[in-house]
Amino acid sequence: MNNERRSKGFYVLAAFFALFVLFLYGPLSAVLILSFQGPDGGLTFPLNGVSLHWFYNLFEKQAVGDFGASFRRSFTLGLMVMVVNVVVALLAGLAFRHRFRGATALFYVTVASLVVPSIIISLGIGVVFQQFGLKPAWYSSGFGAHLTWTLPFGVLIMFAVFNRFSPAYEEAARDLGATAWQTFRHVVLPMIAPSLIGVGLFGFTLSYDEFARTLMTSGTYNTLPLEIYGMTTNVTTPVLYALGTVTTLFSFTIILAALAIILLLRRRQAKIS
Q1: Which residues belong to any copy of the ABC transmembrane type-1 domain (predicted)?
Q2: What is the reported pLDDT for 3?
Q3: CB 190, CB 269: distance < 8 Å
């Protein structure tokens, strides 16, 4: 009887989860399907033929918009944010393992940007750059704006990681004669490496698709989210859907690559232990 109740509960939860996934990816599936419109297809259903025409058209010179350059800017900006996010989050996690004066105030200041509307931060950074006579650009003001969004998440993740990290491993390494750097390099870093990859991936994805904090700080050249938004009022062909499909596949590829690296690290640790 209990098994029957458990099985019914399992199916109810599974059905609820399936509906949740459908809610998340339902709109995305429409974009995916419409990107395969025929050469004479439009922006709505039904499909007028099936082809890869708009994917080929995506890599040709467009009358409006610059996909390639905006993608390169978003990708470069995401990598910059990822590197800084990992380094600062790691250093903050190590620092907050010990009590120091002003730690509480510093923590609240770090996470405060999460509750401030993104467009306000974007506007504020843009105004500050203009007041100092600096020209806003995606690699300077945009970079800073993205860090106000990604760093708090990275820091909070590393706080959680080090909160569960037992100092017994470090004590054992020191008892065996390891220096502080050797302990960090050969003991701490391998154990937290999967979490650091997660922090980096999280920072990259948050930066790659950020719109609001880039709106007032990107300067003359658009990142990919701004380019897509600007093209929604000009592009009247399914090439925009093809762009959405390609960028989505790119995002999933990055995620799968990160998961593969984490899996390899865990297998390596299992062999060593």
Answers
A1: 71-258
A2: 53
A3: yes
Task: Give yes or no for residue 257 having a pLDDT over 90.
Answer: no
155 contact partners, CB below 8 Å, separation of at least 6: 88, 89, 92, 93, 110, 111
Say how far apart CA 86 and CA 201 lie, in whole Å: 9
Across the strands, what pairs with 37? 50
> Distance between the two ends of the chain, CA-based, in angstroms?
43
Cα separation, 210 vs 80, whole angstroms: 14
Question: Which pLDDT score is estimated for 6?
Answer: 58
- Residues 41-95: pLDDT tens digits? 777 788 888 888 888 887 776 655 677 788 889 999 999 999 999 999 999 999 8
- Residue ranges of domains in the chain, CATH in brackets: 68-234 (1.10.3720.10)
Is 5 a residue whose pLDDT tops 60? Answer: no
The pLDDT mean for the chain works out to 85
Q: Which 3 state secondary structure label does DSSP give 20?
A: helix
- Are residues 77 and 146 in contact, defined by beta-carbon separation less than 8 angstroms? yes
Is residue 191 within 8 Å of 169, Cβ to Cβ?
Answer: yes
DSSP output for 66-84: -HHHHHHHHHHHHHHHHHH
* Phi, psi (deg, nearest 5) at residue 37: -60, 155
Name every residue whose Cβ is closer than 8 Å to that of residue 235 and which is 6 or more positions away in sequence. 62, 64, 65
Distance CA 78, CA 32 (A): 24
pLDDT exceeds 80 at position 113: yes
* Helical residues (DSSP H) of the chain, grouped into ranges: 2-34, 53-58, 67-95, 103-112, 118-131, 141-163, 168-175, 180-183, 189-208, 212-215, 224-231, 239-272
